[in-house]
Amino acid sequence: MQNKILKITILIGLLLLQNTALAQVIKAQADAKINAKISNSGLNRISNPPYQIIQVTGDDTKYRLKSDNDGANIYLMPMMKTGEYIELILKNNIGQSHHLNLEVAHIKGQSLTIDSKSSNPSTATDELAQMLASMKENLAGKYHVKHITKEFIPFEKLQVVQTHLYKWKDIVGGVFEISNKTKASLPLNIELLQKRFINVVAYWAEQSYLNPNEKTRIFIIQRNRRS
Asked: How many CA atoms lie less than 13 Å away from 85 in the CB half-sphere?
């Protein structure tokens, strides 16, 4: 019995080590080119914490792509042969772009974590991330916060109401409540919604899909441009 327990413990340990070896943390500044290997047959996960991946640009005939509702992760399955390459441009919700050059290899599924927070000490970028964090946690902190109720023209059958206005120096943040009052499930295309506003520098959505009578929040940050 003890031998069986020992064998099971060793097996679990090997599996944990194997999974750990598949994870890659890549420190990269915005707009820097990232070279990495991905699996030709396994599912590959890519993330950019604490930011949300809001856009993926590439030749979609070379891969299949899925993503989490909150944009925390994307999942990539190559449709290319071993030794070939896939080029992607990822854009996150604070305006950073990452250029990926991915070599398809005969390896197990990979987990790529792009760390652009610690390697990009831009004060402007940090301010956007801090305001987003405060809005998500409903905290005032150093910001001037105004509670409002401002209804906007419905967006693709979804009701849009602004509930908070954040201000700090030359950036302004809006918290919006999005409601689905219909009897059908509806997608929330924040990429299109944010185009209603000018000088948008960052945005984030809690969900990308709303069931009937469901609500969610989105956050949009604009920068006042000096004339």
From this structure: 9
Pair of tokens at residue 133: 């964090």
Same fold, 24-115 and 123-223: yes
pTM over cut 0.70: no
127: its two tokens: 């301010």
Burial of 165 (0-12, 13-18, 19+ CB in 10 A): middle
Tell which residue, 53, 88, 89, 97, has the closest CA to residue 205: 53
Whether 94 and 127 have beta carbons less than 8 Å apart is answered as no
CA 205 – CA 220 distance, rounded (Å): 9
pLDDT in tens, 38-81: 999 888 999 988 888 888 999 989 999 988 877 788 999 999 99
List the alpha helices (DSSP H) in 58-145.
123-136
CA atoms within 13 A on the CB side of 168: 19
CA 161 to chain centre: 23
Q: 191 is written with which tokens?
A: 């990429």
Arch. (CATH architecture) of 24-115: Sandwich (2.60)
* Kind of pairing between the strands at 171-179 and 158-168: antiparallel
CATH architecture of 123-223: Sandwich (2.60)
